[in-house]
Specification:
Elements lengths: L8 H16 L3 E6 L9 H13 L3 E6 L2 H10 L5 E3 L2 E3 L2 H24 L4 E3 L3 E5 L2 E2 L2 E2 L4 E6 L1 H9 L3 E3 L3 E3 L5 E3 L2 H11 L4 E6 L15 E2 L5 E5 L3 H6 L6 H15 L4 E6 L5 H7 L6 E4 L6 E3 L5 H13 L8 H6 L4 E6 L2 E10 L4 E9 L8 H15 L4 E6 L3 H6 L3 E2 L7 H6 L7 E6 H8 L1
The structure holds coenzyme A (COA).
Coenzyme A binds next to strand 21, helix 12, strand 22 and helix 13.
């Protein structure tokens, strides 16, 4: 390429960000920020980045943590909290201190938000009740979250205001309780069906001590890069793999995902730009936990071959799919995935590698009774994820009548010549299928 024609890195970075922007505008991000970061030199920059997200049209809700500030306020009054099973016991006398500390933290964040020209409000949107007496231990004014007033929070977001949800909640008769801000962030994320929940503190992520859990990715720094929550059980069961702090983070992340939050990110807020990097770059920096949306998709076995044949046969007759013998399917059964409802196969497809970098998504079918519910999309995404994990660069699809479906899923039409040599030689000119392809690096960049 000529020197003058080179695209500066900056332009590529802007493209990457713009790609994500369309995707996240109007979606809810809940950001829990530990107050241990308050005195960090880069804390104002972190808040500035949060305001930037808000300006981009992302619905940002902030949950400030107050643990450290409560401890400091109590210490200044010559008091210390007792903890049981990692939970603070807030005495009647301690509650005032907890409320003072929570309001000081909120005010600090509010000031920084104002400095950046945005509006934020802190309010009593959380209904709480007593944690009560558990195992003989009376937690006094430590509470649990009963519900979050979602319509009110939504209304504020609609008005362009950043809601700040502090860790004090009230019961129906106005009695205040001290809440865990991490649990609060989970409750807010769940109630609002947040796309992302960020737990920002001083932990860079979840450490992968010893042998990492299979099916997960580990960064060079030794922390998990991402983890499907179905794998978390193995991590929690592994003796000594996690200390108390990490265990609490993981358990809360899992609770959020089970409650409907799509992704939970654990980040070290002391690193400059960590939030933006996590959102707007392919690799991110912390640990991301996510819900596996593919539990009803599973690898096919040779026992599934007759059902697969039954499923694809009508479309072979309509010339939508090429004919396959049971033997050909059985020989390559490892490439196939099936969608099961009550143990019956209602959908299928195969990801067939051409070489180390290129594969083909083939024989995608969803039974007519199960169409238009997003299953075709999930099968495609599942196989594209699998291709990505296998280190593939691009996936092709050859189709006579379904090109629009693939175009809507990020594929682009390419000439037959774009196919790898070996496949090109086998291309059936009489069938004259359209050739579509998707670059997996571009797809990851769009997904975040
Ligand atoms: C293509 C197919 C797998 C989609 O399955 P699905 O579970 O209905 O897919 P989803 O629910 O994720 O997506 C449905 C969307 O795809 C669209 N769609 C389905 N078939 C389409 C086609 N041939 N061309 C363009 N769009 C199509 C639907 O109209 C629907 O659009 P909407 O979301 O705007 O309403 C299914 O229609 C099918 O099995 N078709 C017959 C076999 C076939 O053509 N396979 C592809 C061979 S290359």
């Amino acid at each position: 390429m000529e020197e003058g024609a080179r695209v500066p890195d900056r332009v590529n970075a802007i493209r990457e960000v713009l790609g994500y922007l369309g995707r996240y505008r109007g979606e809810v991000f809940v950001i829990k920020i530990d107050d241990s970061l308050l005195e960090e030199p880069l804390f104002p920059l972190l808040i500035r980045d949060v305001v930037l997200l808000h300006r981009m049209g992302i619905k940002v809700v902030i949950v400030p943590g107050a643990r450290r500030s409560i401890d400091a306020t109590l210490a200044a009054a010559g008091r210390t909290s007792a903890y049981h099973a990692g939970v603070r016991i807030t005495t009647e006398d301690d509650l005032d201190h907890a409320m003072t500390a929570a309001s000081r933290v909120s005010n600090h964040v509010l000031s920084l938000i104002s400095e950046n020209g945005a509006q934020a409000v802190s309010g009593n949107w959380v209904r709480a009740r007593t944690l009560g007496v558990i195992g003989g231990v009376d937690y006094q004014r430590t509470g649990r979250i009963e519900r979050v007033n979602v319509p009110l929070v939504e209304k504020l977001l609609g008005e362009g205001v950043i809601p700040l949800v502090s860790n004090i909640g009230w019961n129906a008769v106005g009695k205040a309780y001290n809440l865990s801000s991490t649990e609060l962030a989970v409750a807010v994320g769940t109630a609002m069906k947040a796309t992302k929940l960020f737990l920002i503190g001083t932990e860079p992520g979840i450490p992968a001590a010893g042998t990492p859990i299979p099916g997960t990715r580990v960064r060079q720094s030794g922390i998990y890069s991402n983890m499907d929550i179905t794998r978390v059980g193995e991590l929690l069961a592994k003796n000594g793999a996690l200390d108390h702090e990490h265990r609490v983070l993981v358990e809360n992340a899992v609770a959020a995902c089970r409650g409907g939050v799509k992704r939970v990110h654990i980040l070290d807020g002391r690193q400059n730009g960590i939030l933006l990097e996590e959102i707007f770059s392919v690799s991110g920096s912390g640990t991301m936990l996510y819900t596996n949306l593919y539990t009803d998709l599973c690898p096919a076995t040779v026992e599934d071959v007759p059902e697969i044949i039954r499923l694809i046969q009508p479309y072979v007759r309509q010339e939508l799919l090429v004919r396959r013998t049971p033997e050909a399917i059985a020989d390559n059964i490892a490439h196939w995935v099936v969608y099961k409802v009550d143990d019956a196969i209602r959908g299928c497809a195969a990801l067939t590698p051409y070489d180390m970098e290129n594969a083909e998504l083939e024989a995608l079918v969803v039974d007519e009774d199960h169409r238009c519910g997003g299953t075709g999309t999930r099968i495609v995404n599942f196989l594209l994820d699998r291709a990505h994990e296998l280190g593939m660069k691009r996936v092709f699809a050859l189709t006579t009548q379904t090109s629009d479906f693939f175009l809507e899923h990020g594929f682009e039409e390419v000439p037959v010549e774009a196919l790898p040599e070996a496949k090109r030689r086998r291309y059936n000119k009489a069938r004259n299928s359209r050739v579509l392809a998707i670059e997996l690096a571009d797809r990851s960049a769009r997904q975040g």
